Amino acid sequence: MDDERAVAPEERKPLRRNLLLGAMFGMGAAIGTALGLPAVIYLFFSPKSRKPSEWTEAGGIAAIPPNAPVEIAFHRKRVDGWKVVSEKTTAWVVKHPDNTVTAFGPQCTHLGCAYHWTEAGSGFLCPCHTSLFSIDGKVLSGPAPRPLDRYDTKIEAGKLFIGRLRPSVETRA
Known about the structure:
By secondary structure, the chain is α+β, with helices and mostly antiparallel strands. The chain contains two helices and ten strands, in the order H-H-E-E-E-E-E-E-E-E-E-E. The protein has helices at about 1-5, 10-45, and strands spanning about 55-60, 70-80, 85-95, 100-105, 115, 125, 130-135, 140, 150-155, 160-165.
């Protein structure tokens, strides 16, 4: 009869032990989730939505003489992960007689060196490996494999806006 009335202390220990183990595992899972969830978000989700290329104002076109390339500098915002960086960039701009504009990227298509307009007006010259480009960006001589890369351009209210840099797809003939 003593066996029926009282519960032995040994029988209570497994219940208490299971409760404590469950609480410890639950707290460990909560801490692991709290630490792991930000890491998963960081690794698998983009920090900011990708927007189409934005237009950057590069200045007025009234001061640019026709058929005379001018190097202009402008500031462009670049998204680098979670950081937005304002960087100074240049472009070689050629204004045509019909007031259309072509803007070339500042790097040679051979090895990415900076080029310049020659004093004689014969073309864009890359001094590193003597690639020579015409005023319309085509390769005249040298090791450059393709014409100069071009920026998207638009003109609004007499101001030049520069968009995305488009690599030239044609190859040297």
